Each structure stands twice: as C-alpha cells, then as structure tokens.
Amino acid sequence: MAGFGAAALLFSLLIIAVRVRWVPLESVDRGVAESLNEAVAPSDFLVTLMGGISRIGSFGVMAWLVAIGTTLVLVRKQYRLAAFLVATTVGGLILDPTLKLAVGRLRPVVEQPVAHGGGNSFPSGHSLNSLICYTALLLVFLPALRPRWRRPAVIAVGFVVALVGFSRLALGVHFLSDVIGGWSLGIAWLGLCATAFELIRHHEGLRVTEPLEEGLEPEAADDLRPTEPHVHRPGTARTLALGAVAWVFTFGTLVALGLPLARYRDGNGNVLWDSTIPHWFAAHRSDVLGHVSIVGSEVGNTHAILAIGLVIGAVSLAAIRRWRPVIFLVAVMFGELSLFLASAAIVGRARPDVENMDGPMPTSSFPSGHVAATIMIWATAALLVFPRTRAWWRWVLPVLAVAMPLWVAVSRMYRGMHHPTDIVGSVLLAALWLSAMYWLVTPNCDLAEQPCEEDLAEPAGDLQDAPPARSGPPAPPASGASVSKAAGASR
C-alpha cells in the first residue's frame, strides 16, 4: 500500500510541475530528449529496434493479450479475475486521453524526428497502459506458475515495461517526465484495483494475499494452469518428418496444377471458365454488390484470420486444457501460409484481365490465399468444437465452414482478383494439408476410447522439486490408481 501511495504522490507532483512548467524539470526533459535523439536518429537499426519495442506497448498488441487472458479466465469460470482484467485495462484507456487533454503538454521537438506521436504528451500512454496490462496479466496468472518461476516472471514484466518506456524516449515522442508519469499513474491505478480486489476477498472470508508473490487469487492456481498435467507426446520427430513430407507433396501438387494454368494464354485461358466468369462479374458490378464484396474479401484477409485464430486458440486451450488443439491450429495455419506463399512465388500466375478493384497485389493469382486461409480457420473450428458438444449450436460451425469460404471466393472473383481455378487450387491446398495435419496431430484423441499417447507415457519427474530421499526400508508398491493420483498431485 505504501508503494502505491508513493506512486500516486509522485504523479501528483509531476502533474503540478508540468502544468506550471517548472524550469528544472523542463531542462532535464529537453536534455534527455536531445541526447537520445542524437544517439538514435543516425542509426536505422536503432530506430527500427525502438519502433518494434514500442509496438509491444501499443493498444493493438495489448488489447489482444488482455482479450485472450480474459477469455481464458472466463472459460475457467474465474469471473472475478476477468472483471479485474477488464476494469484495470478500461481504466487505463480512460485515464490516458483525459489526462492528456487536461494537461495539454506538447510533444518534444527534436532536431532529427524519427517517429510521430498523436495527441498531447503527458502522460505517456504506452508507458501507462503497458504497465497496467502486463502487470494485471501477471497478477492474474502468477498462481499458475511454480513458486521458483514467479520472481523471474515479475522481473521479466518489469523489464518489458521499462523497455517500452525507454523506446518512447528514444523515438523522441515523449519527455522523461511523461514516461515516469505514466508509470507512477499506472502503479497507483493498479494499486487501487488490487486493493478493491483484496477487500472483496476479505468480505468473502478469504485470506489476505501478497499479489506480487502469489498472485491475486492463489486458490485458482489449478484452474489458471493452461493444461491438465501430462508429459509431452513421444514421437515428435516422426510427426515433424511426416509433416515435412506432407508439405512437400502438397506444394508439388499445387505447382503441378498451377504452372500449366499460368502458362496457358498468359494465365487468362478459359479453363473452367477462368475468363468467362471474371468478365461476367465485371459486367454486372454495382455499388451494393461492391460493398458486400469488400466485406467478403476483408473477412478472409490476414488480420481477420489472425484475430479469429487467436480467439479459437484461446478458447480451445481454456476449455479443452490440452495443447494438441492449439498445436493443430498453429500447424494448420502456418502450413497454409507457407504453402500459399511458396506456390504463388513459383507459379506466378497473372490476375484476371479485368479491372482490379483492389489495386496491384504483391503475390500471384494462384492459389487464393484468402480462400485457403478461410477454409482452414473455419474448418479447424468445426473439427475442434463439433465432436465436443451435443448442443444445437454446434451445427453453426460446419455451416460457417462452407458459407464463409464461399462468400470470400465469390467476393474475390467479383473484385477481379482471382480465376475460378485459383479457388480450386485453394480448396486442394486446404484439403490436402488439413487432412495431413488432422492425421498427424490427432487433436481430438482425448475423445477416443484409447487415450492420447502422452497419457500412456511415464510421467517425467522434476528433480528440482522432488523431496529429499529418506533412508529406511522401501515402501510397499502402490496401486496404479494411487500412483496416478500422486503423480498428478505432485505436478
């Protein structure tokens, strides 16, 4: 509590000093800004590095991290922790812009500008929100870590927050007092939220905790751990080798189909109406259909697919408590991306010879990456969810697995981006790679009568956590059930 109070006092002093333009503070701020600008601006590497670190503290990155963390705790029915994550994050989003408007401090003016910051300068929003979001996630999930890993986790989060703040100084978009103000305000806000959380626990008769040592809700440790205790699947090398073979054969099939299509009449022959259909769509364009096709095209782009994939991965991990579904999702999507990029680079097919509504594209026409990615993501969702529930809504996912790729495919052809055979190539890519990964990873093996291989393997002991050996006569052998129960408890 004393630390939170000190942070609040420091922020109060800083905001007064900034408002009255206290000369010693402004002198230090300008000196630091000019020195860092002289050191960083001449180096393209440092500018790029600082920009990358700065993005770690951006709203786009942290919003996804908080959304995934909130999804995990909600699925595990830890509603109080979910409320803490939402409240702390939203509070930061409210405090940052309102205080910027109230103080009205201008951004630094440096000799060699290398970045641009929108809005006013005090406090630093990246510093404030990175401290709030990363620390809130740490306090929520700290009980899931072994005690020996908790202090390193706290240090790692502090290091990340410090790097984000320093990157804002190095890029010349904030003064030193802006960054320190953001940190102090973030600590004060987190302290207030953590105190309210502890008061709720006290009201419910739960013990007082040390949040930075054991987390906010130590009793939820088992629910917060990502998966059930088990050892890793044997035969990983075999799976990787067979996966590489499947990738090569899928790639060869795509190239064998795509090259003749790209060479025939410069990629615009009329195989499977490759010329007729794009020209028909181009002749029947309208404003309404144009807007529908824009949405249909966007739901298959990289950002949308990544967003859907993150949600599916988080829900799968939280609900199923196994790594296999997540590994299956990652293997499917990265395999699709690499197969699309490699085959498109080799085939090099021209786009349809009609007006292109989306402008020039960096990749060739065959196959359609939008369609292949859409098939993969929705088919994966259906494969993971459909066999695990008997609720009526499970039928929604198979319908989406058909309807979404169809919408994307028609939209891409309508906008003059793809031939019909490009869509055929995408379907072939998805069918071959998805089948191979489902066979190799077996994401639903826990539903079969035979358990997954990792459940059959001998649990690996943790020598560092094992109790010291005792002298004396050996203990009598335990039953299989007792051994399993003891192994699960020790992990």
Walk me through this protein's architecture.
- The chain has 491 residues and is mainly alpha-helical.
- It folds into two domains: 2-224; 236-447.
- It contains 20 helices and no strands.
- The chain has helices at 2-19, 23-40, 44-56, 59-75, 79-103, 125-141, 147-170, 176-203, 211-214, 221-224, 236-263, 276-283, 287-298, 302-320, 324-347, 369-385, 396-414, 420-441, 453-456, 480-490.
- Helix 3 crosses helix 7 (147-170) and helix 5 runs antiparallel to helix 8 (176-203).
- The longest helix has 28 residues, at 176-203.
- The two termini are 34 Å apart.
| SS field, number of helical segments | 20
Q: Compute the number of structural domains.
A: 2
Q: Termini, distance in Å?
A: 34 Å
Q: What is the total tally of β strands?
A: 0
Which spans have pLDDT < 50 for at least 5 consecutive residues?
A: 456-491
Average pLDDT, all residues: 84
Instruction: Give the biggest beta sheet.
Output: none
Instruction: Tell me the fraction of residues in β-strands, as a range.
Output: under 5%
Structural class: mainly alpha
**How big is the Rg?**
28 Å
Which terms would index this structure?
about 500 residues; mainly alpha; 2 domains; 20 helices; about 70% helix; about 0% strand; globular; disordered C terminus; transmembrane; membrane
Structural topology:
Blueprint (H helix, E strand, L loop, with lengths): L1 H18 L3 H18 L3 H13 L2 H17 L3 H25 L21 H17 L5 H24 L5 H28 L7 H4 L6 H4 L11 H28 L12 H8 L3 H12 L3 H19 L3 H24 L21 H17 L10 H19 L5 H22 L11 H4 L23 H11 L1
